[in-house]
Amino acid sequence: MAWWPAVLPANRDVVAAHYLPHLFTSWDRPEVRPFYVETLAAAGGPAGEPMALLLASFLTRQTPDYRGRQDPEEGVRLLLLMAARGDLPEAALGRQIALLTRCTELKLSQATVRLQAAARLGAHREVWAVIRAALPHLLPGAGERPAGGVADLVALGVTVARWAGARGEIPALTPLAGRRSSSAFARECRRLHGLLTSAETGG
Q1: Are the beta carbons of 126 and 79 closer than 8 angstroms?
Q2: CA atoms of 4 and 1, how far apart (whole Å)
Q3: pTM over 0.70
Q4: How far, rounded to the nearest angstrom, does the alpha carbon of residue 145 sit from its chain's CA centroid?
Q5: Tell me: the pLDDT tens digits for 43-69?
Q6: Is the model's pLDDT at 71 over the cut of 90?
Q7: Do 61 and 96 meet the contact criterion of CB atoms below 8 Å apart?
Q8: What's the pLDDT tens digit per position in 27-37?
Q9: Cβ proximity of 68 and 37 under 8 Å
Q10: What is the dihedral of CA 87, 89, 90, 92, to 10 degrees?
Q11: What is the Cα Rg of the chain in Å?
């Protein structure tokens, strides 16, 4: 598997798609190693949903792994590499993080910690784009409660949106910001919505 990227060096998404069945063979015993994905990250060609899913898996998996050797910074390094090259598929990555943490046992809190680390290392604009894409898939609907870890991701969104000078309303956030609630989740939603909408008007 380590040599697969060399077969199609200019079409990494095709190689990434072939890695996916091996990635999901067992969540706690992944077969796809970080250096495989690092090779793809440095390759050419489009980076879409397959690459985003590979990267999301490294950002959300728990550490250490069953061998006790998982490096918690692997996902951060991969994100920074693609961001530095201008190749990070931010919107796709946000969707895939939301998908993995909603539909599997993988934890959103793991991704939040690693996104925060990447933002502090200079990728705050890219991290904001990832969070913005993830939130519509993670925010609760009417009558629903937020899933675990969503409040912390929204709080991180406040920080990185400010660093990035972000603006533009997130429609899924608007009704949540209007809720009369003193919960941490509601407070963070109001903060993020206020920041984004005040930026729109120059306030």
Answers
A1: yes
A2: 5
A3: yes
A4: 21
A5: 777 888 999 999 999 899 876 554 445
A6: no
A7: no
A8: 555 577 777 77
A9: no
A10: 180
A11: 17
